[in-house]
Amino acid sequence: MPNAFVDLVPEGGLKLTPRHYSYLKISEGCNHRCSFCIIPSLRGDLVSRRVDAVLREAEKLVHAGTKELLIISQDTSAYGVDTRHETRQWKGRDVRAHMTDLARELGQLRTPDGATPWVRLHYVYPYPHVDQVIPLMAEGLLTPYLDIPFQHAAPNVLKAMKRPANEAKVLDRIRKWRDICPDIAIRSSFVVGFPGETEADFDYLLQWLDEAQLDRVGAFRFEPVEGAAANDLPGAVPEEVKEERYQRIMEKTAAISAAKLAAKVGRVLPVIIDEVGEADEDGSVGATARSQADAPEIDGNVFLRDVGEGLQPGSILNVLIEDADEHDLYGVPHIQG
Ligand code: SF4
Questions:
Q1: Which pLDDT tens digit goes with each residue over 26-37?
Q2: Which of 32, 181, 265, 288 qualifies as a cystine partner to 138, CB 3.0-4.6 A?
């Protein structure tokens, strides 16, 4: 029996995030050696958690009120590579420590009121088996969202970065993913001004972004990190060129985002409530929410008007999208007629 004086950790584990969403770490460390990154030297090679332990924690969190699980690691697609995808028993089934098995099992979780929690996959490198999780998204078992840190698109730069799963056909695969699951939101981050990046490489990246039409993009100017191999690469890009490229990529991705969000106006979408505001003088209450395309803290919001009294953070409801800007949506609860 839990004892409030002894059990400092609440049911569902200690969390630094609001009760309605939780981060779930599936592994630590990384087997890659991207030239700009020092994580492997700080945290070592990949060490995956047992799949039954991950699923037990996920179930506990969901039973304790989590409505959205954010699956994190340094390299989610590589989960279980270090344990040769060892099999464990979970609910009477054999489950491999493998991203696709884990995703399938996470899709079976239900909240105490029988709903499917949102499950988001972060830090997914586009290995071929990623294709297998897209149908789970199309079936509504996984949130149609993939966070893939591409970092660049030009082959020369990717090679200098020593990026994993760096393959030319990724645009074709993105198209196929969208055929299977049209609502999939793809988030990524990119570095501009990496040593040796030429104007042609940067143009290649912009054209690639035009084709890829990613939903959410974060861009960064290359900064040397103490101890990273990239610091010794030739072809440092001058600061003013980095800045100019940064402004260009931001403009490009903001325009893509604005067009994608504008296309959602008039649609009815599920959102999760993060915060409910105070009532105005006229008694109307607003709320800040997120759609399935928005991970907490890194993506956009859906700002809601007239949500009525009594709405709680973590509630999931359908809203009519009334307006959009570059990063956010605006809507109102949808009353089915
Ligand atoms: S950036 Fe590369 S080396 Fe660093 S954690 Fe990610 S995959 Fe591993």
A1: 999 999 999 999
A2: 181
For residue 282, give the DSSP letter: T
* Closest ligand 1 atom number to CA of residue 33: 3
Residue located nearest, by CA, to atom 4 of ligand 1: 37
- Alpha-carbon distance of 260 to 252, in angstroms, equals 13
Q: Which domains does the chain have, with CATH numbers?
A: 21-262 (3.80.30.20), 268-333 (2.40.50.140)
Beta-bridge partners for 268: 320
25, 26, 30, best to mutate for ligand 1 pocket (most atoms within 8 Å of CB) = 30
Nearest CA to 58 among 5, 6, 8, 95? 95
Residue 91, SS3 per DSSP: coil
Q: Is the dihedral of CA 28, 34, 39, 40 positive or negative?
A: positive
Please state, as a whole number, how many other Cβ atoms lie within 10 Å of the Cβ of residue 304.
25
Give the CA distances from residue 318 to residues 29, 69, 243, 272, 302, in Å, rounded to whole numbers and listed in that order: 39, 19, 41, 9, 12
- Kindly report the pTM of this predicted structure: 0.91
Nearest-angstrom CA–CA distance, 248 and 225: 24
Q: Could you give the CA distance from residue 190 to residue 249 in angstroms, rounded to a whole number?
A: 9
Establish whether residue 73 lines the binding site of ligand 1, counting it when its CB lies within 6 angstroms of any ligand atom: no
Whether pLDDT at 3 is above 70: no
